[in-house]
């Protein structure tokens, strides 16, 4: 079928060019096609073709390899989370076979059907990543409009290359998808379920630009420049097993670095750790470790420790705001990189470096400790990260905001050799993309 699609595309372009602009809306010979009648209900597609004077997208001269590629993409698309793809592929093949006779209405029906299918697919793969917290508009995916999808396709010098670029999403995603499909052909489906489960999470990673990628599954941070990893370091991430505090998936933007930061103690740590220490060791525990009670996080008022009912704080009936002053024991170390998110997660230095030697680095209360905060700061700032003074909590703006993506990849396809790592948070089993989708995609490619 694909060979027939390639042979017929050129003369179909000639047939399509003979259909007057607006013929579909006028209800002329095109209306004889039941399939096209359905497509006429899509006002966006009709308006687009009217605006472009019925310029063909799929039957343009020199683009004969695009229709069969679209069919292939749709056949494997269940693994992209687009369940309707195989059915649409069958409909396109049937429409193309009918259009081979050169009837203008059948040619235009095939043209519009392919445009409708490409719009649906493109919008489906632009969906938000499940479980990810999007905290900045800049890094929140936008589902493209029908006009945007078709305009880019029409203007693409190589339509086939455009289809491949859009469907590949990013190098990590396309590698994972290929691995899932390959594994699905093995007896029992191999490890296809594991690779497929990571596709949803990999979808949020950009294909280009400068950004920080934190992978909680391997407890590692990557610095990307022009869409390529150029440096990395170990990190310590949230402990789900003992503390019940996994590091969430987040997309946000780092705008500034904070030197000599305060540590604002999370409420659960006040309850579990600090309040019991004060009860057992007295209020001197706070002073000894650089803690102070504040009226709010802007520290408009420092409160005496004696004003707090520490037993109530320990049982959670009273909520106390406590911050730790900068210093050698401060949990933030000397440098912090904040980014907007509802969970109060950030990247930060740490005075305790020994834990980076451990193989299991899921040890934190959710925040991300950096093996080398200075090195990350140098890359973000574009210069040596030096505090502007000796004062506390000094914010230094970056030359430009840098997106940060905190994700969870238990499959690593393009970082060294392909490998699978332990699912420490148990999130693979919660994926909506399954081995069945990989098997279906593998069958489409055989």
TrEMBL record:
Keywords from the UniProt entry: Cell shape, Cell wall biogenesis/degradation, Peptidoglycan synthesis, Signal, Transferase
InterPro entries, A to Z: LD-transpeptidase_YkuD-like, LD_TPept_cat_dom, LD_TPept_scaffold_dom, Transpep_catalytic_dom
Pathway: Cell wall biogenesis; peptidoglycan biosynthesis
Gene Ontology biological-process entries: cell wall organization; peptidoglycan biosynthetic process; regulation of cell shape
Positions annotated as active site in the UniProt record: 348 (proton donor/acceptor), 367 (nucleophile)
PROSITE patterns for the chain: LD_TPASE
Signal peptide interval: 1-23
GO terms for MF: carboxypeptidase activity; transferase activity
Top-level taxonomic group: Bacteria
Domain L,D-TPase catalytic: 210-407
SUPFAM superfamilies: L,D-transpeptidase catalytic domain-like (SSF141523)
Coiled coil: none
Family: Belongs to the YkuD family.
Protein name according to UniProt: L,D-transpeptidase family protein
Organism: Sphingomonas cremea
């Amino acid at each position: 079928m694909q060979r027939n699609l390639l042979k017929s595309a050129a003369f179909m372009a000639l047939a399509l060019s003979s259909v007057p602009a607006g013929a579909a809306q006028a209800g002329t010979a095109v209306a004889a096609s039941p399939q096209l009648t359905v497509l006429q209900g899509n006002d966006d597609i009709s308006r687009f073709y009217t605006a472009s004077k019925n310029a063909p997208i799929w039957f343009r001269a020199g683009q004969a390899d695009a229709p069969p590629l679209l069919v292939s993409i749709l056949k494997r698309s269940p693994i992209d989370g687009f369940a309707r793809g195989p059915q649409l592929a069958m409909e396109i093949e049937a429409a193309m076979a009918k259009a081979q006779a050169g009837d203008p209405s059948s040619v235009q029906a095939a043209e519009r059907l392919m445009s409708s299918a490409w719009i649906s697919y493109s919008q489906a793969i632009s969906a938000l990543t499940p479980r990810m917290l999007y905290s900045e508009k800049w890094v929140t995916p936008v589902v493209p409009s029908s006009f945007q999808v078709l305009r880019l396709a029409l203007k693409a010098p190589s339509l086939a290359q455009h289809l491949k670029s859009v469907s590949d999403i990013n190098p990590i995603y396309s590698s994972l998808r290929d691995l899932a499909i390959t594994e699905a052909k093995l007896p029992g489906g191999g490890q296809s379920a594991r690779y497929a489960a990571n596709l949803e999470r990999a979808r949020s990673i950009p294909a280009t630009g400068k950004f920080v990628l934190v992978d909680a599954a391997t407890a590692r941070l990557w610095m990307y420049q022009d869409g390529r990893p150029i440096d990395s370091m170990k990190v310590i991430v949230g402990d789900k097993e003992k503390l019940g505090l996994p590091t969430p998936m987040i997309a946000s933007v780092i705008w500034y670095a904070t030197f000599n930061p305060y540590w604002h103690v999370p409420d659960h740590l006040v309850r579990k750790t600090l309040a019991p220490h004060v009860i057992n060791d007295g209020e001197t525990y706070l002073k000894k470790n650089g803690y102070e009670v504040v009226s709010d996080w802007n520290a408009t008022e420092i409160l005496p420790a004696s004003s707090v009912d520490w037993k109530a704080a320990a049982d959670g009936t009273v909520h106390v705001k406590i911050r730790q002053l900068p210093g050698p024991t401060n949990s933030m170390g000397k440098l912090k990189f904040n980014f907007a998110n509802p969970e109060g997660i950030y990247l930060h230095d740490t005075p305790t470096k020994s834990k980076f030697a451990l193989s299991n680095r899921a040890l934190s209360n959710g925040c991300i400790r950096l093996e080398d905060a200075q090195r990350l700061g140098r890359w973000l700032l574009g210069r040596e990260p030096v505090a502007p003074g000796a004062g506390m909590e000094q914010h230094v703006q970056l030359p430009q905001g840098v997106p940060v993506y905190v994700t969870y990849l238990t499959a690593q396809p393009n970082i060294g050799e392909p490998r699978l790592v332990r699912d420490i948070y148990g999130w693979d089993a919660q994926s909506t993309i399954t081995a069945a989708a990989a098997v279906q995609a593998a069958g489409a490619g055989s």
